[in-house]
Write a structure and sequence with these properties.
Blueprint: H1 2-10, H2 25-37, H3 41-73, H4 80-90, H5 92-108, H6 128-138, H7 141-158, H8 162-191
Helix pairs in contact: 3-4, 3-8, 4-7, 5-7, 6-8, 7-8
Length: 194
């Protein structure tokens, strides 16, 4: 998406803040200079790539740790390594999602605007609506597929019954979703500061 975003910026397709027309000419100039300074390869390719890698590793470690904790509290006797392996293999649907999104962007040459269920949220949201919008971006068929694989892995590896396995997996996935949503919300709020 970095190439598509930089091409859109070169074509003049810049998304301006909501009250851009009320900015003073100096503020508008500062905003345009800030946009131009972030069009280099470091901001377009390297930093998003590093952030994605860190997100994958931290997500895997956190979800595995929280899953192990929730299964242990539910009475399961699995190990941390087993929980990490379950999370790693259950995350394959998320890799498939990334491939599907990449193919979509390659063929249509457009960036995905509303991933997941975020199309059901308010377009120019703020406050709790913005938080809900970020939460809905994470929910799609691939997340549900991952969740079902985690339930199956927990049920088979820890010998918990289906209800406890589902509850332990639900707690772990929900905590991770809240952490991801909170981080995205915080970044979008901080990004709108002048």
């Amino acid at each position: 998406s970095g190439r598509l975003k930089s091409q859109a910026a070169l074509m003049g397709e810049i998304t301006f803040p909501p009250d851009y027309q009320y900015y003073t000419p100096e503020q508008q100039t500062q905003y345009m200079q800030a946009i131009q300074s972030t069009q280099g390869p470091v901001f377009v390719y390297i930093l998003p790539g590093i952030a994605a890698l860190i997100g994958v590793w931290l997500g895997w470690l956190l979800l595995g740790g929280i899953l192990h904790l929730s299964t242990t509290l539910s009475g399961g006797r699995g190990s941390t390594i087993l929980a990490m392996n379950i999370v790693a293999w259950a995350s394959l649907p998320l890799a498939i999602r990334e491939v599907v999104q990449l193919l979509y962007m390659l063929f249509t040459k457009t960036v995905i605007q509303n991933p997941g269920l975020s199309g059901f949220s308010v377009a120019m949201a703020s406050g709790w609506q913005l938080f809900l919008s970020h939460f809905l971006k994470l929910i799609d068929i691939y997340l549900i597929w991952q969740f079902l694989l985690i339930i199956l892995g927990v049920h088979l590896s820890t010998k918990l019954n289906k209800t406890k396995s589902t509850f332990a997996a639900l707690i772990a996935v929900f905590i991770i979703l809240l952490l991801q949503t909170g981080l995205a919300y915080l970044i979008s709020v901080l990004g709108n500061l002048t």
